């Protein structure tokens, strides 16, 4: 395993997780990478590490450049174990290394690992260290997406290493976005934001605002491919848009169905959006995973969720989606609960309650006992057209 030079004297020494299929409850159909970066200067610096089971791959890449024992500084931008998992191995090899982290990073690392004998140096935003020809500075990015998160900025190289921010879950031989298909990488970055960063848009806005003050020509995140050149501005603009909760005039209809009645209602709702010229997508939870649906919802104005009533409650797939949505908390949406029932309709109230918790405007609640007939379905469409 060889390192790859991304800037003069700065190397990618991470690991590729081709087998990763799930992360934090969302599907990672394209796998992932855990990116670590080695800076060769008067002091040798390792920025982040990798998930524990891939430590040998990272060490092999480091050894293609230097002996890991010669590392002088280890920077932990984020305590989560997909990035800190190999820190104990490095600190055991590099006996005299200093471990740099945020104030919350020190607390977190000490709760994760046996840190006896480690030489910690805590840094704050705008603090600088000199490593020879280079100076490194730091930007605290608290709650993007953990309290300890921060970014490392190599000033002379115009290189930002922001850990989880601007990342994507993609296993790839290529290391740079411009070597791959931009639309695919951007969609994965959008999915990452929708499923990881979304609950923390206020903190993300603050962090991205600070980052945008820097002179950056490359962003090297901890997951996925590296942004450089014109693509830097594109991903920064993407985060500005997603942080600001800017929605398009489009709708997503999410549902599950037992005997087809709820699906019939979903199709009637679809026809209403179509009649109004509003882009609309149908997402049957038997087919689409909740994490992929969140990628569609990140910029959708309308959220429609439907479920039959099963055992006095929601279908399990719908319940899973609704609680996932509640945790991720996209804001300022217009909502439509809908569904069918037999002798009780509790499922609709459960959907409504979560929509109310999220402070959504509920445009309409649509429910039918047993099977809606043709006239009923047409009435749903026409009534909704009048309200859109």
User: What is the CATH topology of the largest domain?
Assistant: Metallo-beta-lactamase, Chain A
Unreliable residue stretches: none
Q: Using the coordinates above, name the CATH class of the largest domain.
A: Alpha Beta
Number of helices: 12
CATH homologous superfamily assignment of the largest domain: Ribonuclease Z/Hydroxyacylglutathione hydrolase-like
- How many domain modules? 2
CATH architectural designation of the largest domain: 4-Layer Sandwich
Largest sheet: 7 strands, mixed
Radius of gyration: 24 Å
Beta content comes to 15-25%
- Structural class given helices, strands, pairing? alpha/beta
The residue-averaged pLDDT reads 95
Secondary structure: number of strands: 23
Shape type? elongated
Can you give the helix content as a percent range?
25-40%
Oligomeric nature of the chains: single chain
Strand order of the largest sheet: 1-2-7-8-9-10-11
State the end-to-end CA separation: 57 Å
